[in-house]
Amino acid sequence: MKNILNLLSLLFILHLNAQSTYNSSSIQVTLGDLQTNICDIDSTANALVIYEKGNSYLHRETYKLNTKIEKKVKILNAEGFNKSIVEIYLYNSDDNKREEKIKNIVATTHNLENNQIVKTNIRESEIFREVYNKNNTIVKFTLPKIAPGSVITYSYQIESPFMYNYKEWEFQEDIPKLYSEYNTSIPGNYEYSIKLVGGLGFSKKETVIEKKCLSGNSAVSVMGAVNTPTADCANTIYAMENIPAFIEEDFMTAKKNYLSRIDYELKTVTSFDGSKDRIARTWKEVDKELKGYSSLGRQLKKGNLVRDLLGAPISDETNPLEKAKKIYNYVQNNYTWNNEPLKLREAPIKDLIDSKSGNVSQINLLLHNLLIENDIESTPILLSTRGNGFATKLFPVISEFNYLITQATIDGKTYFLDATDVFLSFGQLPVRCLNDYGRLLTLKKGSSWIDIVNDKFSAVQHQVSLKFDEGNVLKGIMNSRFTDYYALDKKKDYFPNPESYVEDFENSLVDIEVVSHKVKDPDIDSDKFQEAFELEFIDLDTNTNTLYLNPFLGKFINSNPFQLQERTYPIEFGYKRAYMYNFQLDLGDKYELVELPKSTKMNLPDGTGECIFAINSLGNKVNI
Predict the structure, then answer these.
(1) pTM of the model
(2) Can you say whether the dihedral through the CA atoms of 182, 46, 173, 88 is positive or negative?
(3) Do the Cβ atoms of 445 and 389 come closer than 8 Å?
(4) Cβ neighbours for 560, distance < 8 A, ≥ 6 positions apart
(5) Which of 16, 267, 435, 476 would you call most buried, defined as having the most Cβ atoms within 10 angstroms of its Cβ?
(6) Which 3 state secondary structure label does DSSP give 599?
(7) DSSP 8-state symbol, 561
(8) Per-residue model confidence as pLDDT tens digits over 390-429
(9) Alpha-carbon torsion 156, 159, 163, 165, what sign?
(10) Which of 376, 369, 374, 377 is nearest to 352 (CA)?
(11) How far is the C-alpha of 303 from the C-alpha of 240, rounded, in Å?
(12) Please, are residues 574 and 454 in contact by the beta-carbon 8 Å criterion?
């Protein structure tokens, strides 16, 4: 009986060890954190955040925004080693007179050796700083002695003089999190617009009011203040649990549109003397400001600079639409985009005219001025590109716009124009601009939101006709037609190197030789691309009794782009798509058809898509 009891005790101990769990309630590392090497909420995770906490508050003496952050991360396998590299961005003003400062950096790697927790701390000499850009410095360090199963912890404090830039908090990242908490303390004399982004809900959200948390005299403590104005604070705790990793997949706009986080935008500041400073502006105020920008408002009427740029073949054109197209092509072909985004306060049009190269606002404001000078209505549009995220509509945030196009109106019809790419056809925007909406800069009447959508279908159509010749060799023609954005892609593939284009196509085929190739639309700015391939099946074994033939020479989709088990953000194609494939096979008198697949039709819910497969035979001809 004693032996049986010992065996039961051993099984009980083993069961307890197998059930070791993570400590997601604090940054303290436990044996359970090190002994547990799985992630229940995501079996594919390479690492996971066990615990993280942020705490932002206004210092009672310095009136500076302080943010304390602590984080605990489990490294599950070698693919998660990159999480041991930590980068912290610090902001500074344009004149470098004000800057964020970091202090109290503590970073430790915890490993399990002989069932004991062994700690390795990072040294001060292993923390580096590098200038990222004009307004940002990166503080970077890598935690030491990382191995599968390690747990890393790090904490630090940021002191910021920029109270208008209250610390945002991202509850979600590219690995799962067991617990994420953000504590904020906001004095009542600061009013913010608080925006929750993403579809995840809080496990905890509560606010309590702390009376007299801030004094108008930093030299006097609040408790001892006499006749000193004070402010109450709203202390809020936001928490989420079991947060899934945010995995980026094809056909989505910017990650930040859907990543669960909290953003802050300062609206007003009330001083202790009762005066109120309104920080958040109206669009009427912003429009007035934009008029004064040297690279925007002051560039909208530069007829004297552009008057003599165009030659007689363009200036003498009497048809407004044809004239607009010629002006558009002139800018495309004579000025090069340097891949720089919108710049509102520098680089005027004159610099572009002199150097022939400039940023997106210079290129398209030159186009705007040329259109205006030739009596064609044009209005610039500010927008945020797909990769930059949606610009908020709640209040004006000019920094969220990173691109500028123009809208031409001709005979009552509007055309969106962007001259940064020689392959774009008139009225076609690059895909990066298809981000739902922009801000139409009718500054005299007041700017307004405008939808930026593409209602045209971008289509791919293949027509294949094959036939066995007298020598029993299968030959034929494949005619292909691409429109709109598919034409744009094809033009970019073909025109820089036609020989390489044909070679790549031939290499994509199995046992098929390209006899000839012809492009039917030689214009680089055409809105369609048509081509014809003459093909020959060089290694088709025609000596067997049965031939198996794959009729699909042109593939539309090589693999399923949607691999996530659950996609928590919308599918955003950017433009409508259509695919058509017509195939005809003439078997002649040497073969007969053994078997045909069945015709079928499939529909997506709510009419969002359909697929039709129709096949028939007439005599010895097969049509798909």
Answers:
(1) 0.83
(2) positive
(3) no
(4) none
(5) 435
(6) coil
(7) S
(8) 998 888 888 899 999 999 999 999 999 999 999 999 999 9
(9) negative
(10) 369
(11) 57
(12) yes
